[in-house]
Amino acid sequence: MSERETIRAGEPFWVGLHLRMAPGWHTYWKNPGDSGLPTRLRWTLPADFQAGPIQWPYPRAFSQGPVTSYGYEDEVLLPVKITPPASLAAGEVTLAARADWLECQEACIPGRAELSLVLPVRAAAAPPSPAWAPAFADARRRLPAEPAGWAFGAQEMPQKVWLVFRPPRSRVPLKDARFFPDQPLVIDHAAPQPLSRGKGAWRLELTPAPNARRPLPALSGVLVIGGAGGQNEAVRVEARILDAGGLKMAGGGQRPPAQEGKR
Amino acid sequence: MRIHTRRAAAVAAAVAAALSMPTAARAAAVVGQPAPVFSAKDTSGATQSLSAYKGKYVVLEWVNFECPFVGKHYGSGHMQKLQKDYTGKGVVWLSVNSSATGKQGYYTPDKIDALVKEKGAAPSAYLIDTAGTIGRAYGARSTPHMFIIDPRGTLIYAGGIDDTPSTDLADIKTAKNYVQAALDEALAGKPVSTPTSAAYGCSVKY
């Protein structure tokens, strides 16, 4: 579906793939974890239209014994930004996509659909569609935010790797956290992630995957933190593996938290 | 002073032991290290032990015939071809099913033999691991999940069957098959150039 019922030349707009899963079934995030397959869209667009990548809302973890996967249950909207050309003839445009997904409970069933969306072209900007605007707003709330004001670092320990982070000062009290890696062969998806508080920073203890890439690459993915009030917040993580010794954290050109702790 | 030193040494030894101890709860097979040994019954009731195959290359293939990823590799005939080609070259190919009794992919030995025949599969043996013992020892998470053990018992490959996660038969033609590449290199006396990769598939039904 489209967030707006009509479109305008040169003005990007959002469309989305809406997946509704039967109870107990789930589809997958961009990194599916130990099993599964990410949902995929292949577009057929009018001339000079461009489709961006799927913007993935943060996932949840599903565990079956030692197997842990990342995905969505119930329903999810996967937004994609479409950029139309600067000039468009009046009339309609048709956006077509082939969607492929894998839906699993205990069993797995691959799904495929040929989808199309017909949108009228108008000279004036259309308001968001009342039918879909709430679903888009909800999906946006679940997209990982750029980590403004956050600091991240990672430190390799024997058998472990620590994701060390400091949230912005304004944040509400933090209760729990989970890291979702966006690459395979970095961390063990099924291992617990104990959270502890150090001097001026939090530490999430992760376990490298059994045959993890060496040297371990930067930890990249999403950190989902739960506040004491039950609310969740997700931020994008890119944490370089730091040299051993010291908890000097590097991250996005931000002030090292160690300095802040000394004030 | 002596006692103190001894205590310090004992503490250091304990710390060293703790650091070098593999995370027991999360045991897994690690490339470059001895492959976990196992003994399990195959569909004929015979016991298959890894130790009996010292001196040979052994492939372990986690399988579940009801999984669409497994269906892709058997539906195309590619998995059967690999089994035939490499057992023909003296490699031992063990298909392993770790579905718990009653879970998806679990079958009685008779039914498995019938399915193996129907699909034209040609493993050296098909191991029944309903308790998930071998699966957990190797850290098998998906079907297919592939492992290769060299004649000395060292794990030389752990990961996916190929580099193209999908359930689409058409992708097999363009995918790079890691197991084939690793076996060809190993049999030619060369080091395995891609010894680990991300496995993809359905979850193992422990």
Please describe what this structure looks like:
The complex is a heterodimer of chains A (about 260) and B (about 210). Chain A has about 260 residues and is mainly beta. Chain A has two domains: about 15-140, Immunoglobulin-like; about 150-260, Immunoglobulin-like. In chain A, about 5% of the residues lie in helices and about 45% in strands. Chain A has helices spanning about 135-140, 255-260, and strands at about 15-20, 25-35, 40-45, 50, 60-65, 65-75, 75-85, 90-105, 110-120, 150-155, 160-165, 175-180, 195, 200-205, 220-225, 230-240, 240. A five-stranded mixed sheet of chain A has the order 13-14-11-10-17, with no helix packed on it. A three-stranded antiparallel sheet of chain A has the order 1-7-4, with helices on one face. A three-stranded antiparallel sheet of chain A has the order 2-6-5, with no helix packed on it. In chain A, strand 5 and strand 6 form a beta hairpin. The radius of gyration of chain A is 21 Å and the shape is globular. Residues about 245-263 of chain A have low confidence and may be disordered. Chain B has about 210 residues and is α/β, with parallel strands linked by helices. Chain B has a single domain, classed as Glutaredoxin. Chain B contains six helices and nine strands. Chain B has helices at about 1-20, 70-75, 80-85, 110-120, 135-140, 180-185, and strands at about 40, 45-50, 60, 90-95, 125-130, 140-145, 145-150, 155-160, 200-205. In chain B, helix 4 (about 110-120) links the parallel strand 4 and strand 5 (about 125-130). The longest helix of chain B has 19 residues, at about 1-20. In chain B, about 40% of the residues are buried. The interface of A and B includes residues 67, 104, 107 and 185 of A.
